[in-house]
Design goal:
single chain; Alkaline Phosphatase, subunit A; alpha/beta; 558 residues; 2 domains; binds zinc ion; 34% helix
Length: 558
Amino acid sequence: MKKLAIGAVLAAAAFIFMAQKPAPQPASSSLPRTPKLVVGIVVDQMRYDYIYRYWDKFGNGGFKRLVNDGYFNRNTHYNYMPTETGPGHASIYTGTFPAVHGIVANRMNDLNTGKNSIYCVTDSSVTGAGTSSGEGKCSPRKMLTTTIGDQLRMNTIGKSKVVGIALKDRAAILPAGHSADTLNGLAAYWYESATGKFISSSYYMKALPAWAETFNKYDFAAQYMSKPWSLLLPAAQYTESLPDDNPYEGTFAPHETRPVFPHPVDKLKGADAYKALPRTPYGSNLTKDFALAAIKGENLGKRGVTDLLAVSFSSPDIIGHAYGPQSMEIEDTYLRLDKDLTELLNFIDNWVGKNNALVFLTADHGAVEVPQYLTDNHIPGGYFEDEVIADTLKRLYQRHYGDSSLLLTVDNYQVFLRRSLFAKHKIDAAEIQRLTAGKITQMRGIVGAVTATDLLANEFTSGPRMLIQNGWHPKRSGDVCYIPAPGWLAGWGKTGTSHGSPWSYDTHIPLLWWGWKIKPGQSDAHVNIVDIAPTVCQLIGIQMPNGTAGKPLEGLIR
Ligand code: ZN
Ligand code: ZN
């Protein structure tokens, strides 16, 4: 009797399961052991909540297709600070954090030489490909560990192709990796803001491949910029955003007097138009166009080995910085990006087939609500200036040591000291760091600080101090790191937004998986950004990047 009842329940459960089952999926065992193409998509400054905020207005082929048809790790976070573009892109593809891969900021400081503001992909030893300007003098040489692409190429003895693409040089270069060769086996392409062309450097190649030259000849940048940036939908439908003209948006002189639609970017000509393109959704259109050209031009996914395309959409970040997360501009940017994604996914589907492509989508950091908007709505937040911190510290050092020049710079929520002066003044490093941390912690908008001495001696296992430690490299990071209060921004005007903090609005980003063996589903388990690279490598059965600090995610595969 009991057995029968259980049998009936099981049968009913099986029936319900079958009835609810979506479209039939091929069994995992019938799929190829490795995907023909891996596509990593990064959306610069995309917070995870945008998926839901704009859900009702997305089409079925972009973000919704990834969510409905793929696997959504809804609780994915950056596990270091500063949450910035260079570190973010490096961490996604190296599976480790800045303490190990060394890209500790977009602009880094060298404590040994006292040189500051060293751009993370600048390389004076290389020259441009497709350009003779300084915009081509870039390489990944400052990144200290391997990427997914490097491992893939070592696994196939250089047969796999790896292509990194973005408007921002760092967002193209760091994801691709190091292992360039004379056959264009690994390459990165980025946007030259003076000419509207995609360029590369001698690190990767002598000259652009023919398909890229051809793409550049069409001058798509000028074509896109010949139209004003108008709203995709009727204005009344932008119910997720503040009014079009609100006090929390910046303007782009000279073509904008008020931050309102339609943005008359068509008034800009030549170099002015090229320079402004990344600040419009046309930047994402152009990135998508170039990505499709690269897949075709390099025949990615059709060469008998697994190839990798790493594409990053930079414009959402640049637009977010200008107008803030609650602007109609950002809403319109994502509705338009959804169309670019639709086209990209459709293309991949037609090119190699969905079951032969492993796609993931994530972001390099999030963004805070405009702090002025927060305070106007009685929510804690605010602004502090690096210059004010610097002046306070200079006075402190003058009083204590008789030398204000002990301060090198205040940058990326860190204080850098001129260590070469320590011996002259008989300064104990731990003592001046402690003094600095004590002073900084008293300032408005700062909730804590940790010294380099403490970071070297202790292992922090939770909270913002752990995030600082993960983002701190002994040769490239500061003497004292401080923690901004939630809702506070360093060195920013009262319009638009930024990022860099250890708080959830900056760390919580989407992570979507789609294609090949990925099963539909979602998880609310906390996962870290550094888990992406080991997951990709484990899924396709290759070695993880050599500095991996994350772990492969479970439960993605059907
Ligand atoms: Zn970014
Ligand atoms: Zn940014």
